[in-house]
Structure formats: structure tokens, C-alpha cells
Automatic annotation (TrEMBL):
SUPFAM superfamilies: PLP-dependent transferases (SSF53383). GO terms for cellular component: mitochondrion. InterPro entries: PyrdxlP-dep_Trfase, PyrdxlP-dep_Trfase_small, Ser_HO-MeTrfase-like. It comes from Rhamnella rubrinervis. One of its GO terms (molecular function) is pyridoxal phosphate binding. One of its GO terms (biological process) is tetrahydrofolate metabolic process. It catalyses: (6R)-5,10-methylene-5,6,7,8-tetrahydrofolate + glycine + H2O = (6S)-5,6,7,8-tetrahydrofolate + L-serine. This is Uncharacterized protein.
Length: 76
């Protein structure tokens, strides 16, 4: 991730995303159980959707190694 320009504080933010994901999934497991019932808890889950939006917003602020933003094309 460092080639994408992330610095130490950004890795802390990634840790926060992972913590949110674990917390959400533990809550779903507690309320819905495991396996197939767990999958039902993922459907239309507001917390999962918010995490997805936040993570995509964060990650889109960093370039992809070997590509130019905003075109996302390989350099010539």
C-alpha cells in the first residue's frame, strides 16, 4: 500500500475499517446465526453499506500503482 502513497496514519484508518467490519459481522452473527442465516443478515444491511461507501471513498483518494489518475490508464 505504500506504493499507492499511504502513510502511517492511513494504516490506522484501514485498521478502523477492519474493526468496523468485525464488529458488524459479530453483531450479524449474534442476531442471525452462522452460515446461511448469517448471509441473510448481510442483505440490505445499513452498516455494511455505510462501511462500503466509506472504504471506497478512502481508497479512491489513492492512485493505483502503475496507473495514472483519473484516467486509470497505464503510463506510456
Amino acid at each position: 500500500m505504500t506504493p499507492r502513497g499511504l502513510v502511517e496514519e492511513d494504516f490506522g484508518r484501514i485498521g478502523e475499517f477492519l474493526h468496523r467490519a468485525v464488529t458488524i459481522t459479530l453483531r450479524i452473527q449474534k442476531n442471525h446465526g452462522k452460515l446461511l442465516d448469517f448471509n441473510k443478515g448481510l442483505e440490505n444491511n445499513k452498516d455494511i453499506e455505510e462501511l462500503k461507501v466509506d472504504a471506497e471513498k478512502f481508497s479512491s483518494s489513492f492512485g493505483m500503482y502503475g496507473c495514472k489518475l483519473p484516467e486509470m490508464s497505464y503510463p506510456t
